[in-house]
């Protein structure tokens, strides 16, 4: 589990960025090629935390980072998750209990990914 | 920000615990005096992660841990949050953008809290 996303309606994204960066005492960072995301570096050590502007109601979701999208998606489906949609390389799953997660390719520093990742047989 | 809560309808709590513990490869832990919570130790280093059985729709929320509930609640209200309710020592706030957070007393190891906490003037 690599990432906590704070999904916020686009119209309120700037307000949410101002709140969360002040509340957590971190400087927000926007990537030029991923304008819907504003990351909150070091909000939690070891967990990427970001605000995402969405055309939907406010919610949180978490990402599972993997070096094998198909295998990880199938593993989670085997545990009862249901794949809802795909967007670029991201797979959105609804998991038992009703929560949304995304399965995403490696975004972390590759060495950190190797150090932190769990290996499945 | 100390805690990620996976709030799940009570009827599906056992199913959710089975999924999340297998998905993250961790052993779930129930505290005898807090039966609605099942923690997922070491799911993310440095972030307490737990499943909470609730009488509500599935959702995630995050907790802000503090050694001064009143001061932290007032600080967040000053940044635009609105206090919705109180339950024991926990204050539930809706923050700009629409998300729910809880302000809670220190639950972490006190030395870790001191090492990680941000200090506000």
Structural features:
homodimer; 121 residues; alpha+beta; eight-stranded mixed beta sheet; 3 helices; 8 strands; 40% strand; globular
Structure description:
The structure is a homodimer of 121-residue chains. Chain A is of the alpha+beta class. The first copy, chain A, is 24% helix and 40% strand. The relative contact order of chain A is 0.20. The first copy, chain A, has helices spanning 13-24, 69-78, 110-116, and strands spanning 3-9, 29-31, 34-39, 48-54, 59-66, 82-87, 90-94, 100-105. Chain A is globular and about 40 Å long. At the A-B interface, strand 1, helix 1 and strand 5 of A face strand 1, helix 1 and strand 5 of B.
Q: How is the biggest beta sheet of chain A arranged?
A: 8 strands, mixed
**Residue-averaged pLDDT of chain A:** 94
Oligomerization state: homodimer
The amount of beta strand of chain A, in percent, is 35-45%
Terminus-to-terminus distance of chain A:
18 Å
Shape of chain A: globular
Q: Largest interface, counted with CB-CB under 8 A?
A: A-B, 43 and 43 residues
Query: Number of DSSP helices of chain A?
Result: 3
Structural class assignment of chain A: alpha+beta
What is the gyration radius of chain A calculated from CA atoms? Answer: 15 Å
Strand order of the largest sheet of chain A: 2-3-4-1-5-8-7-6
SSE ordering of chain A = EHEEEEHEEEH
The tally of strands of chain A reads 8
Low-pLDDT runs of chain A? none
Helicity level of chain A? 10-25%
